[in-house]
Queue: 4 jobs
Job 1
Amino acid sequence: SITKRMYKIVHFYITFFVHFYIIINIMALIMMIYSIYAIIQEKQKSKYYKKTILYETNYDKYFTMVRKQKIVVLKKRLQLPFLKFFS
């Protein structure tokens, strides 16, 4: 009876640890798959943001150029009446 009880206890612990080991391995596999998925998503996001940043920097350069041109055109418009008056 003691050996049967010991056998049941040992059998319970062995099956428990085997199941626990299987569950831990499954969780580790799921985490590895998710990390690969997250890395792929980050690469796609970085490609998108690189394109977007390039567009925004080009647009910013264009916008500053237009602003400078507007200032030059305004100065010329203000100079024109004075030049007409003094000539």
Note: The radius of gyration is 37 Å.
Job 2
Amino acid sequence: MGEINELNQSIMALTELWEACDDDDQKEEILRQRDDLRLKARELSKQVLNEGTPELVAATEALARLTKKAKEETDRLNNTVKKVNEFSDFIDEVADAAAKVAVLIA
């Protein structure tokens, strides 16, 4: 965690330097360095979390599987709702046709 803290401090220092800098070329280089450090900090954070806690990795994988399953079930339910709505429209048409026939017979 100490490395992550050092990276974050460096990122903040580069941000402050960028704000104080007047030269566009130097500002661009400072931003590039800061972005590189941010990427390294993210990768290190992910590595620390994943290596230190196998339970967390397993929980994350389980969550991903459940999220996928929930999306599949949502899609399935949406298809069912669509079919029910189509059937309801069909029933409405049948009722209209029956009403017209009833008027003709009466």
Note: The mean pLDDT is 88.
Job 3
Amino acid sequence: MVQVIAGVSPAAEDVIRRAVAETLVGIPVDECKISTGLDYMDEETIFVEVRLGLVAQPFDSELDTKLSVKIHQRLYDIGEHRMPDLNIEFADGQKIMGW
């Protein structure tokens, strides 16, 4: 489920939704919230909060970076120049590779 809170075009929402679905294949996405605001440097930012369900296999932490880069590139490709800020929340007890 993707929930847009404020300030994001339908095209940007679609880009983010597709990037999440393509990158996190086989991992249940319980919630995805998209909002806008200022980051810690007072720069306009698109905040993407993804809450994942529990899976048996450890989460590959490289997927976090891949998703962030994919969202940023695709937003740029549609003319959106605000930097995305990705936050992934894992289910309690989720194992993560390398941790």
Note: The chain has two helices and four strands.
Job 4
Amino acid sequence: MATEETALAPETPKMTDLLHQLREATTAEAQRDVMVKSILAGRNNEISATERKVLNMEFIKINSEAQAGLKEERARLKAATNR
């Protein structure tokens, strides 16, 4: 099922590939590499402005989820040390 963001963007093969790479990236460095690729693809007109926005929204979503997980982990560790 397509998310609201991906429903807004045309699914070009380049867009699909970059979105897949971004979702599969497990490190911040790998995510940055994909975002650099998306910027270059946008500049080379391989993806549309809407597709770039979708990739950026996905990047923000992934990072927000990671930050929330880190915040929970810090709180758990702090609680464990205060016992």
Note: The first helix runs from residue 4 to 8.
